[in-house]
């Protein structure tokens, strides 16, 4: 039985909540009078967001151990998430009275919810020494800012994962907000302080698929990327505009420069193009340019004639008459230019 409970606790710590639930069930079935087993299953039900089961197990633990401050905390937490704020506050007040240090923040949240509903006086606590707040009392000051929480992040092509290393937090201590290009976190620390941070993300995320998990060591946040690929950083980098200068031999170049507003660069470009067009090539370049000029404006038969005659004659004949070229084998009667000879490849 103890082994089953130990296995359940191990699965819980490793965030295997479904597996832990089955192990807690087996442990309780074998030993239904152990309050610790019910408290363990209640904590696991909170992770599974099964708050009705959480309350039921906390009440079972209280029947076995009436002065368990942990059981009152579990009961109050579950009731809070079931929107039963008056009952939740009564249970949390009792947990505080019995020495639990983690109920104060949730008590304030219950009080705020009750005031929104117009209930200035919540239900009485199980004990006569209730610490319920009266609506006539001044509002509580804001909690002090927490010291910096260590954070890290890593990524895959599809997901960005952010980790906040904060110990002993429960789900109700953590508020995470997702926006397409922004992530916000608010952690209510065990010492009563509060940690807040906002990240302007490097790129967009899919808000509907974003999620987070809380365990006793850290808060793990998963952000699906809107577009697969690598991010250069977690947060958007500020854009810095640097005025660029062209340097040559230690001097600032005159092109382009605002100091020469009278230069018409488009006119210079047109002049260069015109000079290239008017340039008269010689030799093979002239022949090639003539071939390209004729070929560009020729019809299909003319192009076929030019290609066949030029290639089969080893460049000694260039004809545009397809009727003549179609039945002629220039390779059998190649007449090379004076001073040259035909060398046939083997």
Structure in a nutshell:
The protein is α+β, with helices and mostly antiparallel strands and 346 residues long. The protein has helices at residues 2-13, 17-30, 35-47, 51-64, 69-81, 85-97, 104-116, 265-278, 283-297, 300-312, 322-326, and strands at 150-155, 159-165, 174-179, 182-188, 194-200, 211-214, 219-224, 247-248, 251-252. A 4-stranded antiparallel β-sheet has the order 1-2-7-6, with no helix packed on it. It has a 3-stranded antiparallel β-sheet with strand order 3-4-5, with no helix packed on it.
Structure description:
This protein has about 350 residues and is an alpha+beta fold. The protein is built from eleven helices and nine strands. The longest helix is centred in the C-terminal third of the chain and has 15 residues, at about 285-295. The model is unreliable at about 120-140 and about 250-260 (pLDDT under 50).
How many E strands?
Answer: 9
Give the uncertain stretches in residue-range form: 120-140, 252-260
Order of helices and strands: HHHHHHHEEEEEEEEEHHHH
CATH topology of the largest domain: Immunoglobulin-like
Summarize the amount of helix as a percent range: 40-55%
Radius of gyration, taken over Cα atoms and rounded to an integer in Å:
41 Å
Q: Work out the count of structural domains.
A: 3
Task: Quote the distance from N terminus to C terminus.
Answer: 91 Å
Reading off the top of the CATH hierarchy, the class of the largest domain is best stated as Mainly Beta
Query: What profile does the largest beta sheet have?
Result: 4 strands, antiparallel
Strand content: 5-15%
**Rough shape?**
elongated
Widest sheet: strand ordering: 1-2-7-6
How many helices in DSSP terms? 11
- Classification by helices and strands: alpha+beta
């Amino acid at each position: 039985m103890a082994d089953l409970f130990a296995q359940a606790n191990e699965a819980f710590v490793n965030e295997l909540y479904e597996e832990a639930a089955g192990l807690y069930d087996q442990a309780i079935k074998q030993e239904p009078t152990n309050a610790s087993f019910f408290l363990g299953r209640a904590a696991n039900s909170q992770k599974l967001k099964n708050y009705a089961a959480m309350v039921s197990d906390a009440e079972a633990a209280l029947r076995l151990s009436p002065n368990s401050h942990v059981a009152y905390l579990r009961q109050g937490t579950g009731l809070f998430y079931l929107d039963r704020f008056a009952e939740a506050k009564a249970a949390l007040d009792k947990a505080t009275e019995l020495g639990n240090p983690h109920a104060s923040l949730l008590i304030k949240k219950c009080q705020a919810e009750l005031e929104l509903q117009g209930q200035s006086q919540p239900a009485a606590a199980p004990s006569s020494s209730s610490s319920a707040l009266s609506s006539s009392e001044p509002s509580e000051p804001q909690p002090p800012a927490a010291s910096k929480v260590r954070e890290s992040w890593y990524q895959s092509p599809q997901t960005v994962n952010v980790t906040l290393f904060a110990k002993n937090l429960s789900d109700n201590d953590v508020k995470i907000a997702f926006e397409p290009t922004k992530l916000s976190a608010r952690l209510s620390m065990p010492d009563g302080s509060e940690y807040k941070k906002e990240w302007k993300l490097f790129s967009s995320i899919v808000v509907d698929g974003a999620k987070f998990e809380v365990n006793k060591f850290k808060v793990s946040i998963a952000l699906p990327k809107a577009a697969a690929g690598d991010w250069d950083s977690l947060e958007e980098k500020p854009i810095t505009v640097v005025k660029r200068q062209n340097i040559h031999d230690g001097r600032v170049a005159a092109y382009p420069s605002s100091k020469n507003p009278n230069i018409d660069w488009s006119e210079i470009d047109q002049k260069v193009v015109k000079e290239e067009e008017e340039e008269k090539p010689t030799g093979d370049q002239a022949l090639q340019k003539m071939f390209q000029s004729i070929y560009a404006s020729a019809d299909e038969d003319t192009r076929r004639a030019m290609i066949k005659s030029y290639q089969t004659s080893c460049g000694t004949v260039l004809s545009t008459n397809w009727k003549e070229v179609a039945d002629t084998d220039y390779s059998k009667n190649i007449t090379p230019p004076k001073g040259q000879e035909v060398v046939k490849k083997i």
